[in-house]
Amino acid sequence: MSDLKTTTVSDHEEIQEKKPGKVKEFFNKLGQTAFIQWWVQLWKKFKKRFPNVAQFFVFFMLSNGVTVLQMILMPVLKRIFATTNLINVNFQIWQLGQNIDGSSYFIFDFKSGAIASGGGGGLAFFLAVQITLLIAQVINFFAQRNITFKSDGNPWKAAMWYAIAYVAITIFASAARGLYTVPIYNLLMNTWGMGATGETLADFITMIIYSAISFWVFFPIFKLIFPQSKEKKEALNAKDN
User: Fold this and answer.
1) Contact by Cβ (8 Å): 207, 131
2) Relative orientation angle of helices 51-82 and 122-143, to the nearest 10 degrees
3) Which terminus of the chain has fewer CB atoms gathered within 10 Å of its CB, N or C?
């Protein structure tokens, strides 16, 4: 009798564990509604007729999500690092000619001192930007590989080429950054007299420009490093039909 009772309790607990939570159950029911199913079927038809356009759209939406993350994270890290002595550490490397005023043009140009006082944010600003980009690109790698391109290729090989592309694009985007960063910060903070608010807006704008450069370069690279096997393509086509 005791064993039967124990078995019954155990079976009941197992059923309870397998039962989906209220949130999951809600979304399951929502996904089965006529409205959502209509959109799902419409998307499947569109994807079947215009596969490349559909793929680019998913890439675009995910990239925008990552950009929003960067816009939130970078100013936060910048404020944190600005409270340390790193803001007074000069970080200007890899000179690439000269500016119009005759000063040296650096690929990574983060002069010591706060931006509000005429500096370039120093090593603090450099770390805030690069840590933000690193976190964003790690998330982007997995999201694009699994959702946009649904790749079943070698992940380590893809990660290696992604890292190489990331470093190359970072250097290129940083070199271009010097062309627009100072004018944007100067316009918002000094010309328009917006002060600290202008600096925050400039952070957002420069991060959007930086991300836009990466966006257009990364898509063709992803097409190469995130391949699909023939079996994977057939399985996905069968699922959509």
Assistant:
1) no
2) 150
3) N
7 in any annotated domain: no
User: What is the pTM (predicted TM-score) of this model?
Assistant: 0.74
Q: What whole-number distance in Å separates Cα of residue 58 and Cα of residue 148?
A: 6
> Could you say which DSSP state residue 20 is in?
P
CA dihedral 142, 146, 149, 153 (to 10 degrees): 90
User: If DSSP states are collapsed to H, E and C, what string results for 165-206?
Assistant: HHHHHHHHHHHHHHHHHHHHHHHHHHHCCCHHHHHHHHHHHH
In sign, the C-alpha dihedral spanning 201, 203, 204, 209 is positive
Classify residue 200: in a domain, yes or no. Answer: yes
pLDDT in tens, 103-135: 788 888 888 998 878 888 899 999 998 999 899
Domains of the chain: total? 2
